[in-house]
Amino acid sequence: THPAPVIAAFRDRLRQPGADPAEALRTLADVTTPALAHRVAALVREMVELRPEAAAHLAVYVDRRLTHGPAARTALFPLVTGVLIGCAGSVRAALATVLAAPGGRASHELRRELLDLLLAHERDPAVLGALLRAAAEDLARRGEEPTRELVHRTGRLMVRTPAGATGFDRGLVELARGVPGFAAAVARWLSDAPEEWAGVVGPSTRRMVGNLAGVRVPA
């Protein structure tokens, strides 16, 4: 079958208001021919630009494509760049969540590259807050050191504005309360390298995290 009419048919399905794109995106995520995969990624970007409410489906598509490893880069890199530049905050938050996930071994290199791209561009406290939550909730799967690095990088971006700094402190406390092991991990980070976190975590948040972890954290 010639690809042009097939791509056009998928475009029509993805652009229909209220239509569930899940099945179509599952099919499209398995397209691996480079030229076609690039066109498919452009369709997905069009969809979320027109239908921000489909952000969760974008995340599933990106996650599935990441399982193909470095071969997916030529399609995913322009897609992620386009989403960061031209899509709503809710779409970027969904993307941040999937890029922060540990994923399988095949996806690690590309996932890290795309996450670095997001961190280089993103400044919206709400999107960065979603990234913080994803970092905390995957602590057990990702491991403590990579999580510490991601939380610290996210915090450094958030504290550039008063609203972001408040959101980061609030998010740390909420996640320390709700995510098993996160309070203890953050308390260790604050105790092991207090100077590294001095400009990122406020004094009251340090105390609250210490209380939740049951340890004393340097002020």
Summary, kept brief:
With 219 residues, the protein is mainly α. It has helices at residues 3-15, 22-29, 34-50, 55-66, 73-86, 89-100, 108-121, 125-137, 139-142, 144-158, 162-178, 182-192, 194-197, 203-213.
Mean pLDDT: 95
General shape: elongated
How many strands?
0
Helical region count?
14
Biggest beta sheet summary: none
Total domains, how many? Answer: 2
Helix/strand/pairing category = mainly alpha
Low-confidence stretches: none
- SSE pattern, N- to C-terminal: HHHHHHHHHHHHHH
Rounded to an integer in angstroms, the radius of gyration calculated over CA atoms is 19 Å
Proportion of residues in β-strands: under 5%
Give the N-terminus to C-terminus distance in angstroms: 66 Å
Q: Which percent bin holds the helix content?
A: over 70%
